[in-house]
Write a structure and sequence with these properties.
Length: 281
């Protein structure tokens, strides 16, 4: 069967995904498969850059004329916002971004689709966060996006567990500006009251990582979600499933974002327009 994807050439448009590490990223497989299926002359490659090199790399990428888009993973989702000329609504609320696109005038727009993808993935597994008390672990780039999406999706309460006091305070202040009293720092005993517990930290990517929290402290019917993509079944999800609690893997969050990326970047299959960060069921 003939591969519909054009060979990489001087006309090929470039996309990158930035992270540290990048071995776990799944975006290249998903987006390059999309490019092949739609015969789009484009390619997405991973770029491994640490925090100390982000400024130099981003300045170079912004000036790369055949680069149309940048995806962002840990630990750069917060810092990357300062390289955007404009922020979309989700990035503005969360203070973090996981995608940047070059506009027609050469400026760059950043937005965040982690939250919309996460909520859509939850609903796809039969777990609507509306009306739930949510225990969220992590206030980094992804955690901020998830908190913002949980707020707009109607979650009843957010209990935030974050060891970095500056990150914790910044996110709580952001959320309070939109819904005062909705979110607060998590405390001992809060896990027993949550209907949804979410790991939005990198813990679980490595075999030696400790659990971000102990599922044994949760209600028996509490849903446990993890945003770690690799491994597909983290130690947290395995422990939760072994205890009989429903689980939602990290893969569902990224799979649900593909259509949003298509719309944001104006790719074939994205209905020909750049969307607003919402993903309907």
């Amino acid at each position: 069967m003939t591969d519909p994807r054009p060979a990489v050439s001087g006309t090929t448009r470039l996309y990158v995904v930035l992270g540290d590490p990048v071995a776990q990223v799944r975006a290249p497989g998903l987006l390059n498969d999309l490019f092949a299926r739609t015969a789009t002359d484009a390619v997405l490659v991973p770029v491994h850059v640490g925090p100390d090199g982000l400024d130099e790399v981003m300045r170079g990428l912004r000036r790369t004329r055949n680069l149309d888009g940048i995806l962002v993973t840990v630990p750069h989702k917060i810092d990357v916002c300062r390289y955007a000329d404009e922020l979309g609504p989700a990035a503005e609320l969360a203070g973090s971004a996981n995608a940047l696109r070059r506009n027609a005038d050469g400026t760059w727009r950043a937005d965040n689709f982690d939250g919309a993808g996460f909520v859509h993935g939850l609903r796809g597994h039969g777990h609507d966060p509306a009306g739930e008390r949510v225990a969220l672990f992590g206030a980094g780039g992804a955690g901020r996006a998830l908190a913002a999406a949980l707020l707009t999706s109607g979650a009843a309460r957010l209990l935030l567990f974050e060891s970095d006091p500056e990150r914790r305070t910044d996110l709580l202040d952001r959320l309070a500006a939109h819904r005062p009293g909705w979110a607060r720092a998590g405390a001992d005993g809060d896990l027993a009251t949550a209907g949804l517990a979410v790991n939005a930290t990198p813990l679980g990517m490595r075999p030696e990582d400790p659990l971000p929290f102990d599922p044994a402290h949760l209600r028996a019917d509490c849903t446990v979600a993890d945003i770690v993509m690799k491994p597909a079944e983290t130690a947290l999800l395995r422990a939760a499933a072994d205890s009989g609690r429903p689980v939602v893997p990290g893969r569902s969050m990224l799979d649900s974002q593909v259509l949003l990326y298509q719309r944001f970047f104006g790719l074939p299959g994205g209905e020909g327009h750049r969307g607003n960060g919402r993903l309907e069921r």
